[in-house]
Structure formats: structure tokens, C-alpha cells
């Protein structure tokens, strides 16, 4: 006999199981219609902001891509007119020759020589012909933006008389017939000057300048021992005579000589080797130069004089450059030749004068020859 009660219970359980299975299937279908949101499915305007996706007009701020108008301030890219102003840096950069004008003309303005090992020399302007102090020298240092000069030597003019100055002078009067003396100061005299920045100067042929005691100085040479510039302030024996002198510079061969300002020297010829210092019908005084060729022509005058029995004497200029002196006397005429040798150039002072002129002016001619400087510049 069939048990209907048990059969109904089984059917009920099956029915409930079918309903549950259908409900689970519906839930799985609904999940597939709502996918999980990942970065790949985000809209393009809502992406994660990473450095690779940043706009190109907002670069990372690094020193390699800073704008050119915002440089890193280092001493190597400081703009013109600025510099590091430490005492040590100023001291290092002051080594050299500084001129109180952006160029050197027929004479020099105030001229500073800053040597290594803290020695200095200050030569006062040649355009001040009434000055009593020619130059000062001693030790120097920089402290708290001050240039401190310890002066232990002075070159001064003692005595003399005042006359009207030369046309090129900045002073009204000129001292002549004075005696030049070197004074030693013990204890030293201390002078302090304000010293400014070492600056670039793009408008001058000399690219560096500094302000000392309110005056601009341009560095015209890095080497304070430069022979040429040291020769400009050389106080030679000629300065102790009773004659006022000017200086002729030959830029082709590189030499100079002092001569009386009252002499009307000639223009240089096309060859550019020299000038007539004094020329009349009976007087011929000239100076000329040339290159040493390493041939017999370098000593032609000397060899000729020796071959004719004319004395040839050794001669030394005031700056210790060596040469020879030849004096040939013939009746009432005298020929003088003094030759000074540099490394590559020789300079000749030649005079063909009357015996009376030579007797009266022999010392003048010797002093002129001693003032010769050969600095071997083309």
C-alpha cells in the first residue's frame, strides 16, 4: 500500500530545491551585467595621475630644466658687473698691472703694480708734471674691503724750479732741474683705500676693472713683472739732468728712447724703423731699430770700426741691457754710434755732429742712450 504522506514530503523538498536553484542562477546573471571596475575600464578623463601622464607644460622642477632666466647663482655665471667680493678672492685677482684709464697713450695715468708675495708699486701719473712724489712701494693686503698699503719706499723730486708745463700735461706747471731721490720709510707709512668689486667691462679693450679709492682701474696686464710696462715708469739717469724729456716709442720693432722735449723729431718713414731726433744742415741725430737675423749684418758697424782701428767699448743701458759704443773723431766732426741689443731686436742711436756740439752735449747723448729700452714687441 502506497504511503502518500511520505510522497508529499519528498515532492515538497524537491520543489523547494528547484526554487532555490532558479534563484541562484538569477543572481549569477545579474553579476555579469555589473562588471568590476578596474583602471582599464575607467573613463579616459578619470585616469590615475602618474608622472608619465602629466601634461608636458608642467615639468618636474629640476635644475636641468629650470627656465634660462632663473640660473643657479654660481661664480661662473654671474652677470657682468658682479663678482664674489671676499678679501681672499680680491687679493688673488688683483695680481697684475692696473691703469687708471682704459688705454695707455703717450704717457700713463696712475699705475698700480700688484706683485705676488704682497709687494706693490704705485706710479703716479706722468701727466702731472708738477708732482713731487713719483712713486711709492711696499707691502699690500686686503682686509674688510679695504686695500691697505704699507709704504716703505718713495721716489721723490727734491728742489728744482717750476716752469710752464708741456701741452700734453694735466698740470699747469712742470718741475725741472730737480734731484730725484729714493727714500726709505721706517716705520712704514700706512695708506688705506676703499676697494670695490672686480668687475667685467665689455666696453673696454681690457676686460676687467676695479674701483680703488673711487677711481676706476683697468687690468692692462696679468704679469706685474712685464718688461714693457715696467719700462714706462723707469726713472733713468737721464731724469737727473737739467733737460726735460719726452719718450719716443717704436711699436714696429719694440723699443723706446728719451729725448729733449725741445727737439722737433720727424715723422716715422714708411719703413717705420725710427725717426730723426734732431736734424739740421750740420747735425744729424737719429734712432732706428731692426730685427736680429743671426748674420754678420747684426754686428756690421762693430766689425767695420774694429777693422779701421776705431775703439769699440762695451755699453750698458739703465735697465742693464747690453750693447756697444763707437766714437769716431775726424777733424771737426764726431760720429757716435751706440747699439743696444734685445733678444730679437737691436736699437741704434746715431749722431753725426760737430766736435763743439759733441763736447757740449756728450753727456746728454750718453744719457739718451742709457734710456733706451728694447722690449722686442712687433
How far the N terminus sits from the C terminus, by CA atoms, comes to 145 Å
Order of helices and strands: HHEEEEEEEEEEHEEEEHEEEEHE
Mean pLDDT: 79
Helix content: 10-25%
Q: What is the helix tally?
A: 5
Radius of gyration: 45 Å
Number of strands: 19
Major β-sheet, in short? 8 strands, antiparallel, barrel
| Low confidence ranges | 31-56, 58-85, 236-241
Structural class: alpha+beta
List the strand order in the largest sheet.
1-2-3-4-5-8-9-10
| Tally of domains | 2
DSSP strand content: 35-45%
Overall 3D shape: elongated
Structure overview:
The protein is 18% helix and 37% strand. The protein is an alpha+beta fold. It folds into two domains: 82-232, no CATH class; 237-374, Mog1/PsbP, alpha/beta/alpha sandwich (Protein Transport Mog1p, Chain A). An eight-stranded antiparallel barrel has the order 1-2-3-4-5-8-9-10. A six-stranded antiparallel β-sheet has the order 13-14-18-17-16-15, with helices on both faces. A three-stranded antiparallel β-sheet has the order 11-12-19.
Task: Spell out the key features of this protein.
5 helices, 378 residues, eight-stranded antiparallel β-barrel, single chain, alpha+beta, 18% helix, Protein Transport Mog1p, Chain A
Give the SSE map:
Elements: H1 4-32, H2 87-94, E1 96-99, E2 111-114, E3 119-123, E4 133-143, E5 146-158, E6 161-164, E7 173-176, E8 179-200, E9 208-212, E10 215-221, H3 227-232, E11 245-250, E12 255-260, E13 274-279, E14 284-291, H4 300-307, E15 312-316, E16 322-330, E17 333-341, E18 345-354, H5 355-370, E19 373-374
Antiparallel strand pairs: 1-2, 1-10, 2-3, 3-4, 4-5, 5-8, 6-7, 8-9, 9-10, 11-12, 12-19, 13-14, 14-18, 15-16, 16-17, 17-18
Amino acid at each position: 500500500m502506497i504511503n502518500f504522506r511520505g510522497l508529499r514530503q519528498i515532492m515538497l523538498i524537491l520543489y523547494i530545491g528547484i526554487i532555490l536553484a532558479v534563484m541562484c542562477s538569477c543572481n549569477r546573471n545579474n553579476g555579469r551585467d555589473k562588471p568590476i571596475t578596474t583602471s582599464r575600464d575607467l573613463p579616459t578623463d578619470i585616469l590615475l595621475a602618474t608622472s608619465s601622464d602629466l601634461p608636458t607644460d608642467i615639468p618636474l622642477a629640476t635644475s636641468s630644466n629650470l627656465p634660462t632666466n632663473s640660473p643657479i647663482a654660481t661664480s661662473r655665471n654671474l652677470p657682468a658687473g658682479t663678482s664674489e667680493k671676499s678679501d681672499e678672492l680680491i687679493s688673488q685677482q688683483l695680481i697684475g698691472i692696473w691703469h687708471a684709464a682704459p688705454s695707455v697713450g703717450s704717457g700713463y695715468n696712475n699705475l698700480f703694480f700688484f706683485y705676488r708675495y704682497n709687494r706693490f708699486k704705485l706710479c703716479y701719473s706722468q701727466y702731472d708734471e708738477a708732482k713731487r712724489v713719483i712713486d711709492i712701494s711696499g707691502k699690500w693686503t686686503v682686509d674688510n674691503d679695504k686695500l691697505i698699503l704699507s709704504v716703505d719706499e718713495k721716489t721723490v723730486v727734491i728742489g728744482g724750479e717750476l716752469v710752464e708745463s708741456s701741452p700734453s700735461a694735466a698740470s699747469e706747471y712742470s718741475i725741472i732741474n730737480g734731484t730725484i731721490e729714493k727714500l726709505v720709510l721706517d716705520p712704514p707709512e700706512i695708506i688705506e683705500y676703499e676697494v670695490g668689486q672686480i668687475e667685467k667691462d665689455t666696453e673696454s679693450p681690457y676686460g676687467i676693472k676695479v674701483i680703488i679709492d673711487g677711481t676706476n682701474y683697468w687690468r692692462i696686464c696679468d704679469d706685474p713683472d712685464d718688461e714693457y710696462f715696467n719700462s714706462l715708469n723707469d726713472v733713468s739717469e737721464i731724469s737727473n739732468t737739467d733737460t726735460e724729456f719726452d719718450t719716443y716709442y717704436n711699436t714696429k720693432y719694440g723699443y723706446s728712447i728719451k729725448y729733449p722735449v725741445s727737439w722737433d723729431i720727424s715723422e716715422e718713414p714708411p719703413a717705420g724703423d725710427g725717426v730723426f731726433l734732431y736734424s739740421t744742415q750740420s747735425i744729424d741725430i737719429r734712432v732706428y731699430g731692426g730685427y736680429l737675423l743671426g748674420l754678420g749684418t747684426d754686428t756690421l758697424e762693430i766689425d767695420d770700426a774694429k777693422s779701421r782701428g776705431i775703439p769699440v767699448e762695451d755699453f750698458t743701458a739703465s735697465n742693464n741691457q747690453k750693447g756697444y759704443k763707437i766714437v769716431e773723431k775726424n777733424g771737426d766732426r764726431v760720429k757716435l754710434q751706440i747699439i743696444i741689443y734685445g733678444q730679437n731686436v737691436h736699437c741704434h742711436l746715431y749722431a753725426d755732429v760737430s766736435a763743439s756740439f759733441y763736447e757740449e752735449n756728450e753727456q746728454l747723448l750718453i744719457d739718451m742712450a742709457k734710456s733706451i729700452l728694447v722690449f722686442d714687441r712687433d
